[in-house]
Amino acid sequence: MPRTADRTPPRSRAHLTYAPTARMLHWSVAALVLMTAPIGFIMADRGARNIWDATTNTLYSSHKLIGLIILALMIVRIVYRLTQGAPEPEPTLTPVEKGVSETVHWAMYALLLAVPIGGYLGIAYYPALDVFGVKIPGLVTPNENTAKFIFQMHGFAAIALLGLIAMHIGAALMHRFVKKDGVLSRMLPNKRDV
Hints:
The protein is mostly helical.
């Protein structure tokens, strides 16, 4: 029996685009990380130079609050990803690119959880649980030495996260301007699902 041509209409690119909820969570977390990272470096520098004033307190409170928001959004984001999945990979990706992409994404997810959890544990052990005058609960017994160790690990993890984010941004720009494929457009805000 002769084969007949496949008459299935071609699929739109919508199945390759992240859902609006996934895009909103992605860009919200990205904006918050880009805000809190410099705040963290500035407040740590001021603390190391023993500058304890209203500006330093505002920086610390802002960093804590943003970190808690990132943690909450990342929990929602991971639950959403695990329950709703992600679109099919961009067809232009090589197997190596797919593997690297998955590894970097899950490593970023892990660090986007670990960094704020570490920050919370640090302020709980210190204790420095005041955020703009509101006391957040401390779930551990204070221990300044433990706090110092956790803050050090928090800093290392934050730097590792920023390194992965730089790779992520670099890869997105390479796909946009060198490979000229649809990788970046999958996550752009206000992308229509057509």
